[in-house]
């Protein structure tokens, strides 16, 4: 009789812990935290109080602070640390993960400096492994509370995604497949920038029409850059595109949206991030996205204003005044 698949999740933040909880309902799951106190709390109290409050974690979930033990145990490796920490985390275990173990990214940012997507960083750190991602409109706390949601496993080889789907799925967590890894990954990355713009709009007290305009034109920017980079434009109309955009721009729990709101309240970006105490990937990713927009010659006026605010060159109110100056052309064209 074959033994069950061992899932290992690296990173015990809000989403890493939640995904580990999903997997633990289906198969043995080990969660690595760099904090021994957090690992102990998960093992003894079945809670990760810093990130998920009092929510109870499944009994089958085990945690460790030993990354070598975790890497060696993995039949499936899930990378749940923020984008800027993927390379340093995987460099510790590059010789420890068995050949052919599939690796799934949860991250929704770009690596500063290299401009690489998480799956590209993973492929460099763990060459030869099938690499993909799990993404979609997935606010961690709602899923940890058992509310219904859907996500996408994206891998180039559809057979790998088919094998991974049931490890994370449940009666309330639907897992779809998509072979457009680039499009799915960019959707998750780019919606964070629009969510900062949406939070700024809410902080400035705009109405629902303005909010809808930011979402619709933000989606147009995401799709334009994605298509220019080689993604399938249809992907942006799906869960990892417009789906994640809506969830992140509307949810009071979204960290990127909350950063935008804090900026509109007059906080500096450093103060906004400190107030949050969790990762908001859009802050670090905004300048990198603008570099890509220039390289691929794509107009991204909303992302440009967000980048200017995050860099401290513009106030949120000025950014919104700036957006009003963009001449509206054909809806399907550039700006
Ligand atoms: N939260 C959500 O709803 C969702 C998040 N995501 C994405 O998942 C990724 C992780 O986010 P999330 O779990 O929410 O983030 P959190 O801020 O909640 O947690 C980050 C985790 O990564 C660890 N970490 C941070 N820096 C390092 C480092 N340099 N080396 C090793 N570990 C590190 C933290 O450890 P410590 O606690 O010790 O600081 C913590 O365990 C992000 O890319 C995010 O965009 C995707 C979908 C949903
Ligand atoms: O990606 C997310 C939901 O799908 C979480 O968004 P935040 O990182 O803004 O909280």
TrEMBL record:
Its EC number is 1.1.1.94. It catalyses: sn-glycerol 3-phosphate + NADP(+) = dihydroxyacetone phosphate + NADPH + H(+); sn-glycerol 3-phosphate + NAD(+) = dihydroxyacetone phosphate + NADH + H(+). Coiled coil: none annotated. SUPFAM superfamilies: 6-phosphogluconate dehydrogenase C-terminal domain-like (SSF48179), NAD(P)-binding Rossmann-fold domains (SSF51735). The active site is at 191 (proton acceptor). It holds the Pfam family NAD_Gly3P_dh_C. NADPH binds at residues 14-15, 34, 51, 108, 140, 255, 279, 281. It is found in: Cytoplasm. Residues 180-319 form the Glycerol-3-phosphate dehydrogenase NAD-dependent C-terminal domain. Keywords: Cytoplasm, Lipid biosynthesis, Lipid metabolism, NAD, NADP, Nucleotide-binding, Oxidoreductase, Phospholipid biosynthesis, Phospholipid metabolism. Substrate binds at residues 108, 255-256. HAMAP family: NAD_Glyc3P_dehydrog. NCBIfam families: PRK00094.1-2, PRK00094.1-4, PRK12439.1. This is Glycerol-3-phosphate dehydrogenase [NAD(P)+]. It comes from Rhodococcus tukisamuensis.
């Amino acid at each position: 009789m074959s033994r069950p698949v061992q899932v290992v999740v690296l990173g015990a933040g809000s989403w890493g812990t939640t995904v580990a909880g999903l997997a633990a309902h289906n198969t043995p799951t080990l969660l690595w935290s760099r904090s021994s106190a957090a690992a102990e709390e998960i093992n003894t109290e079945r809670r990760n109080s810093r990130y998920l409050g009092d929510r109870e974690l499944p009994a089958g979930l085990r945690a460790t602070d030993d990354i070598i033990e975790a890497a060696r145990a993995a039949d499936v490796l899930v990378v749940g640390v923020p984008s800027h920490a993927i390379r340093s985390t995987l460099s510790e275990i590059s010789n420890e993960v068995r050949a052919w173990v599939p690796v799934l990214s949860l991250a929704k940012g770009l690596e500063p400096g290299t401009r690489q997507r998480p799956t590209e960083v993973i492929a460099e750190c763990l060459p030869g492994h099938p690499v993909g991602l799990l993404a979609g409109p997935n606010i961690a706390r709602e899923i940890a509370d058992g509310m219904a949601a859907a996500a996408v496993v994206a891998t180039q080889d559809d057979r790998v995604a088919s094998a991974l789907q049931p490890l994370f799925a449940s009666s309330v967590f639907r897992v779809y497949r998509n072979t457009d890894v680039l499009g799915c990954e960019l959707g998750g990355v780019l919606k964070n920038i629009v969510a900062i713009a949406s939070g700024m709009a809410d902080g400035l007290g705009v109405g629902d029409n303005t909010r809808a305009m930011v979402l619709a034109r933000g989606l147009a920017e995401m799709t334009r850059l994605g298509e220019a980079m080689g993604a399938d434009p249809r992907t942006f109309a799906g869960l990892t595109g417009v789906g994640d955009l809506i969830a992140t721009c509307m949810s009071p729990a979204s960290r990127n949206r909350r950063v935008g709101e804090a900026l509109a309240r007059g906080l500096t970006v450093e103060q906004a991030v400190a107030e949050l105490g969790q990762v908001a990937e859009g802050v670090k990713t905004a300048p990198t996205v603008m570099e890509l927009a220039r390289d691929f010659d794509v107009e991204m006026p909303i992302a440009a204003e967000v980048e200017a605010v995050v860099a401290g060159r513009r106030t949120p109110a000025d950014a919104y005044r700036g957006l009003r100056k963009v001449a509206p052309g054909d809806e399907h064209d550039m700006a």
